[in-house]
């Protein structure tokens, strides 16, 4: 391990953020 893929990073953020606005921001950033 050691290298964090973008998918894993986003997945972790979603788990931490739960249903907060940051999830929407992450999805917006991914759609670019």
Automatic annotation (TrEMBL):
The keyword Nucleus applies. PROSITE patterns: RST. Pfam families: RST. Keywords: Nucleus. GO terms for cellular component: nucleus. The keyword Nucleus applies. Its main location: nucleus. InterPro entries: RST (IPR022003). This is RST domain-containing protein. It comes from Nymphaea colorata.
């Amino acid at each position: 391990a050691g290298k964090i893929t973008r998918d894993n990073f986003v997945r972790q953020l979603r788990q931490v953020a739960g249903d907060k606005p940051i999830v929407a921001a992450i999805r917006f950033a991914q759609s670019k």
